[in-house]
Structure formats: C-alpha cells, structure tokens
Predict the structure.
Amino acid sequence: MNPSEASAATPYQQVGGAQTVVRIVEAFYARVETDDILRPLYPDDLEPGKKKLAWFFEQWLGGPTSYSDRYGHPRLRRRHFPFVIDERAAGRWLRLMREAWTEAGVPRDIQDPIFERLAVLARHMINANDDVPREPLGDVYLD
C-alpha cells in the first residue's frame, strides 16, 4: 500500500483486516486469562466474548458491521454496568490491549491514533462509583 492509499484506508484495512483482528483478540484474551485484575470481571467461559469483541473491533475500525447486524447498537457502557470497572481495571485493559496489538504485529504508527480513541472508550467504561443498574442487559439478536 503506497502512502496515499494508506491514508485513505480505514483503520480496519490498515491493521490488516479480519485476520489481524482475530490475532489481537486471541492475544488479548490470553492475557486476560491470567490477569489478577481483569480475569474476575470476565465470565468463566471466555469464548463467546472473543467472537463479540472481534465483531465489535471489525465494525469500530471501519470494517464489516457484523456486531450491529447481530446485536444492534453496541451500547457499550450499558452492557458493562454489571461489571464494576474502576480506573485501575480500565488502565489494565488498555495495557493488555496494547500488548495484544503489538503481538499481533500492528505497527505503532497505526496503533497510536487507534489507542487515542480506545483510551477515551476505556475511561467511558469506568463505573465503580456510579449508581447504575448492575443486572446484565442481555443479548438481543436481530433477525
């Protein structure tokens, strides 16, 4: 890809598409599996979350809309209310995610603008001191 094509490409294309997104998600969840801060926030079975995160990232990066096609609007903050997320957890999530992107081979110059957005998203998920409904929103599948 020449420089003008790279600047016109979506972040999804810049990172390498679906294969890279899957590598990122796998590398991230491998870290979550052994993390003392994040692991307690995740369900016992991590597999369904992997698929959902991959679909979300594909869409969020400008690729296929598989997540919204299945679940509608992501409503990320609301979907995370059942989990008490503090600043430490949000920071750890970002750190492990950065490590996963690096392991997946995404160059730092492509990561950096994406992580500016991810940092805002991670801070938006902090809810530890908020009076929010803690019951799960549940999955609503679209036909």
User: Anything to note?
Assistant: The chain has one domain: 16-125. Helices lie at 3-8, 11-15, 17-33, 47-60, 66-71, 76-79, 87-103, 108-125.
